[in-house]
Input
Amino acid sequence: KRLKAELERVNGEADKRAGQETSTMRRQYDLELTALRDQLRVSQQECERKYAEVSQLQRECERLQALVDQGRLPAGTDSYRRDQRFEQAYQELQRMDTDCQQLQKENHSLRDSLIRLEERCKRNSKEKLKLKRVMAKLEQQNQLYQHELAITSQRAELLASQLDHTNLELAQLQSETILHRDNAANVQARVSVANTLELYKQLDESYGHMNDKWKNEMKAFTDKFEAKIKKIKSQTKNVVQKEDEVKIGDFKSKHR
Output
């Protein structure tokens, strides 16, 4: 249940955050697009006004040039005023032409910005569509997870029930084990006494056998040692006798 609630909370937050980000991006792009369109419209109006002024100046210059070519200047127009007017008209024409070129550059820049913004809007629309598909896929996965979570919860409840039953059986087995242990302790005590007596009996028999074996070995060793002593004494006696005989022989030889 806790995992299910956590999944629902995470999905809700993801949907809310995605919706907020999409709405924010849409409002931002709409504002930028509106501002660029307004700037483009103002620039187009300014450009049209400048073109009209340039056209008017060009027509005025052409009219004055025609009058000059025909030698018919307006009344009260002298050469200085005519040259000054031509110079002013020419400077105004150059200024207008420069302004028109600048406005054309701004117009192209605004058009490029508008095109880029429209492309961004298209990309965002594609990303929004992709995001919707991802959200739909996540929703399907969420439903699958919820189904698996429900199955897992059922299994957990079943395992909990089995665990409770197992704990009851374990408690019964522990009680029976304690009872059998007490009985086994009594039996083991009786068996231990009998085993101890039997062990003492076996040890006594083993000690008797070892004692008899030790006595026999000591008797054999003593007999063997006494035989060697007798042999050594006999050999010593023979040597002494031979030495005495030699001494007696030598003594007799000296006194002849």
